[in-house]
Write a structure and sequence with these properties.
The protein is built from two helices and no strands. By secondary structure, the protein is an all-alpha fold. The radius of gyration is 15 Å and the shape is elongated. The model has no long low-confidence stretch (mean pLDDT 93).
Length: 73
């Protein structure tokens, strides 16, 4: 996501998360994960791994991750 693109965080009902502090935390988490993933992919490629393969492994990890708490409805 480009720096000037706005992220829209949504609740289970589709409405937007509007609390400024919640949005701030969500955006900070996004940025941290983005940088961590970039570093991990760069490391893997420098060690001879296929970028496509590394991305698939991380996507599989993301898709298998479940929330530890129920969604608030």
């Amino acid at each position: 996501m480009k720096k000037d693109e706005e992220k829209y965080w949504k609740k289970p009902d589709g409405s937007l998360v509007s609390c400024t502090e919640k949005v701030k935390v969500l955006n900070e988490n996004f940025d941290e994960i983005k940088h961590l993933l970039q570093d991990a992919i760069d490391d893997a490629v420098l060690m001879g791994c296929s970028e496509e393969n590394v991305k698939k492994i991380y996507l599989d990890l993301l898709n298998s991750t479940k929330a530890a708490y129920p969604e608030i409805k």
